[in-house]
Structures are given as structure tokens and as C-alpha cells.
Amino acid sequence: MASRGMTSPEQPTGSSGPRHVLVTGASSGIGAAVAMRLLADGWMVTGLSRSEPDIRAPGFTHRPLDLAAADAPAIRSTLDGLPAVDALVHAAGLLRVGTLGALDREAGTAMWRLHVEAASLLADIVVPDMAPGGRIVLLGSRVAAGAADRSQYAATKAALVGLARSWAIELAPRGITVNVVAPGATETPMLLDSARAPSPPRRPPIGRFIQPTEIASLVAFLLTPDAGAITGQQIVVCGGASL
Predict the structure, then answer these.
(1) What pLDDT is attached to residue 109?
(2) Is the pTM of this model over 0.70?
(3) Reduced to 3 states, what is the DSSP secondary structure of residue 219?
(4) Phi and psi dihedrals of 124, rounded to 5?
(5) Under a CB-based contact definition with an 8 Å cutoff, are residues 119 and 138 in contact?
(6) What is the mean pLDDT of the chain?
(7) Would you name the residues annotated as active-site residues?
(8) Rounded to 5°, angle at Cα 131 from 130 and 137
(9) Which of 18, 73, 112, 134 could form a disulfide with 130, with the two C-beta atoms 3.0–4.6 Å apart?
């Protein structure tokens, strides 16, 4: 990746030309909604996902990558030649459910690698060259507080909060913010995944599922200069389900 000079903490990086954001999980669901929203906002977007997104827009680049299996060299190779990164949105996700006595170790490992290890590897690679005004947003879950039949998933999402708060402390002096957006039941392919049949989703009190575009709007705000004082936070978007 290319590097750039330092900019004012009050302004997003990439002052010369479009700002550049990496969005994982860009092929569907929340990741795709985030990519589309940021493209509409004028960002240059690089999407990382196993399959190619159905996004045909100026400013969008797709780099195929299986983050659940990628190590640091694979990620560096995938990012080679890209502009310096102004923001990282880690939206790639996987949900597997299971009760105590029937937990699937491989499923737990896969979720940990995709949610936690991938976030760590990506941040470790892109943050050293990130200028003031940089942004990191991790997609967590309301379930991070705990939920029956989802202990392994909840553990990985709770770990993201620990990562975000730790990184926020480290990066605050550089004017870089780190936050977690934690959706409740959102109308995505994951919501209808047959793998979650033993633990089906329930509609929030607002009477409908959350829309990916609603999550994308919050992520987009967190990437703006107006959100420069928000860091180390987990923002829950649950339609009232956590009340």
C-alpha cells in the first residue's frame, strides 16, 4: 500500500483525492450496504470478500480473499498496490449456533478467525500507515452481551469490543477512532441462514427487522469528521430488543 503525509486531526485523511476505505464482507448483507453507502458518499472503496460483489460503480475495487483462512502475508499480498487506507470497516461475519454439550469446535474456530483474528491482522497491517483522521469500525452484535445457543458467536463479538476499546486508547493520540457497531436482528442472508434454525430470529419491538442500510448509515457517520470525538464505543442498533 502507498503511504501519505499527515493531515489535520479535524479532517479525514486523503485530503488530496477521494478517501479510501477497506470494507470486508462486501459481497452481501451489511458489508455490501456499507460499500454502496460509502461509494455514494464519495469514498473510494475496496471490498474484500470470497465472492465478487454485484457492485458496478466508479471508485469500487474488489479483491478476493477468504479472511477466515488468510494469514498476514496473504492479506499483505491482497492489499498490494492499493492506496493508503483511511478507514477500515470489518463487516465480514459468520453465525453458527449450538447448545452446551453439542458445541462445534470447528464452527467456533471459524467464527473466531473471521471475526477476531481477521480484524487483528487487518488493523495490524493498515493502521501503522493510517494518518490522523483515520477510522476503524468493527461490526459486532447485540448478542455480545450473551444469548442462549450462541455462546461461541457471542464470545467472538464480545472480543471485538475488547479490541476496539484497547485500540481506541492506543490510537486516540493519533486522531484515529475505533468503534463497534452492534446490530440486532438485521434483514440479511445471515438472518435466514439454515444453520441458525435451532435459534430463529425474533422481530425487535419496533415490529420489523433492522435494515442493512440503517447500519450502513451509522457506519458512514462514524467515518466522518463529525464523529471524531466518538471512540472506544459499542453502539447497539437493536430496534428496542435490548430494552
Answers:
(1) 95
(2) yes
(3) helix
(4) -65, -30
(5) yes
(6) 90
(7) 153
(8) 55
(9) 134
